[in-house]
Design goal:
- The protein is an alpha/beta fold.
- It has two domains: 103 residues, Enolase-like, domain 1 (2-Layer Sandwich), CATH 3.30.390.10; 199 residues, Alpha-Beta Barrel (TIM Barrel), CATH 3.20.20.120.
- It is built from eleven helices and 14 strands.
- Strand 6, helix 7 and strand 7 form a beta-alpha-beta unit.
Length: 327
């Protein structure tokens, strides 16, 4: 039976603004792919990211470029050769997982080899800003068990201390989004250690992170921008202790599962992350959470309104997707 591919560009306002070292945004712009076959239809969502040279237009064009092969029946294995890792392949790969689950009647989690998919505790993000602004945001979120603190370089020790004072019971992880320099590392690591930070994400720019191999790391350091898929993973082992696996980087759940297995064999801890998107983007990533040391799937919690139906969140606990959403 012939398939039909359709795509849509959707916009979801963010509650307030989401601010990292590279700038702020007030809405999540996502590209959603739907692959229909007979009465069944599978969906996947991606978030184009300018840091990786992506735009809504380029991602949409890449999806269109794969249309003929997909509509003629290309499967997930064929898709890996059709498109490189990135947002476009993610939307299509997740749509194919969803489609397979709906046609077969077998949940995607089962297809991925999971006996059960439990709920997961997600981090909640505190955007970067002045220390007092971040402290106020942390105080409002202090009841959450795990906070992810965005940083920006100069002034970060004060930001870290302010958040810790405002949320004394919360576990903390920090994300510098490539904003630190090698000279910053000793003082900034010390500030994190003093605040009880449990993980430092991507302190140095990707491709300029050699200094991490030459310095004592009192706190585990996690690669984000430095790792996308399995290519080059082994070379990062002396620099990082964990990797952030995001479907928009790996190009979908298929490569993400393979990346997790390869990373575990090399001794990396796993961090399951996301771009700011809706529950449709978080749902397939939930299949990775049982093996993760940290989970950051708070995208829908940062939106003014999620899509319906969405994932169920109770505080910071994210529950597995219902069939009506995905998988």
């Amino acid at each position: 039976m012939r398939r039909k591919l359709s795509l849509a560009i959707e916009r979801f306002p963010i509650a307030g603004a989401f601010t990292i070292s590279r700038g702020a945004k007030t809405e999540a712009v996502v590209v959603t792919a739907t692959i229909a076959e007979g009465a069944a239809a599978g969906r996947g969502e991606c978030v184009p990211y300018a840091r990786y040279g992506e735009s809504v237009e380029s991602v949409s064009a890449a999806i269109e470029g794969a249309r003929a092969a997909l509509e003629q029946g290309a499967d997930r294995a064929a898709l890996q050769a059709l498109l490189p890792a990135g947002a476009a392949r993610n939307a299509l790969d997740c749509a194919l997982w969803d489609l397979e689950a709906r046609i077969s009647g077998v949940p995607a989690a089962t297809l991925a080899g999971l006996e059960r998919l439990p709920p997961a505790v997600t981090a909640y993000t505190i955007s970067v800003g002045a220390p007092e602004t971040m402290a106020a945001a942390a105080e409002r979120a202090a009841h959450r068990p795990l906070l992810k603190v965005k940083l920006a370089g100069a002034g970060d020790p004060a930001r870290i201390a302010a958040v810790r004072a405002a949320a004394p019971q919360a576990r903390l992880i920090v994300d510098a989004n490539e904003a630190w320099t090698p000279d910053d590392l000793p003082a900034f690591f010390a500030a994190c250690a003093a605040a009880g930070v449990e993980l430092i994400e991507q302190p140095l720019p990707a491709g300029q992170d050699e200094a991490l191999a030459a310095i004592a790391r009192p706190i585990p350091v996690c690669a984000d921008e430095s790792v996308h898929d399995r290519a080059g993973l082994a070379a990062l082992r002396t620099r990082y202790d964990a990797i952030n696996v995001k479907l928009d980087k790996t190009g979908g759940l298929t490569e993400a599962l393979a990346l997790c297995a390869a990373a575990e064999q090399l001794g990396f801890a796993l961090f399951i992350g996301c771009m700011v998107g809706t529950s449709l983007a978080m749902a397939p990533a939930m299949l990775l959470t049982p093996r993760a040391a940290f989970v950051d799937l708070d995208g829908p919690l940062l939106l003014a309104a999620d899509r319906e139906p969405g994932l169920r969140y109770e505080g910071s606990i994210a529950f597995p997707p219902e069939r009506a959403l995905w998988g």
